[in-house]
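Thread: Newbie trying to understand structure tokens

Hi all, I'm a second-year student working on a class project, and my supervisor (Dr. K.) asked me to get a predicted structure for one chain before our next meeting. I've only ever worked with sequences, so writing a 3D structure as a token string is new to me. If someone could post the tokens and maybe explain what I'm looking at, I'd be very grateful. Here's the chain:
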Amino acid sequence: MDIKRKQQLLSVVGMAVIGVAAWLAFLLLRSVWREFVALNPSLAVGLLTAATTVLVATLTVVLGRYFERKKEVESHFREKKTEIYDPFLKEFFKLFHNPEKGGAGDHMAAFLREWQRQMILWGGTDVLVAFMKWRTNPSKGVPDAQSMLLTDEFFRAVRRDLGPSNSGLERGAFIRMILRHPDVFFVLANANPNVTLAELAAKEKELGLDG
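---
Reply by user tm_fold:
Sure, no problem. This is what the structure looks like when written as tokens:
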């Protein structure tokens, strides 16, 4: 039996034990309560009312503090994640929109080495998965439609991790923020899912859109 199955089995057994214990406790309290009510119904009602008031007040305070603490932790993590994701986006757009700048690729590679270290500590699971798919994309040496779609998925994961919803944003929406002529890209990508950005540039030139 592998570790994952053992963990699942232990979780099921643990829940079963907790359920049985809770049920036995319920039966015991019910029995005690019935005996108590039989002795003095008026006193039992008064105690029940007082106990309920105390319980509700206690739960209100405990739950209030719990959710307050939870919000503080989420806010702290969101700030740390923003500090990580924002520099990446700056470097990405700097590289993408200034490809002719000498040494830009080497600078990006050096930046990613340090950035990945911070991602291991603070990055959300969905963001890490999307980033690894983007980073290990077989066509990364020759950027194509698939690499652009993986970039779009990565950006979506970043937004989800920080809180904003992607509802209403069609697949490939962020490509429109990267490419100068996204409509041409989508036409070519629909005809050939593996169209490269070099082929896109050639088509833009052919259409007189490269200026």
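A couple of things are worth pointing out once you decode it. The chain has two domains: 1-39, 84-206. The helical segments are 3-39, 41-97, 104-122, 125-135, 145-162, 182-191, 197-206. Feel free to ask follow-ups in this thread.
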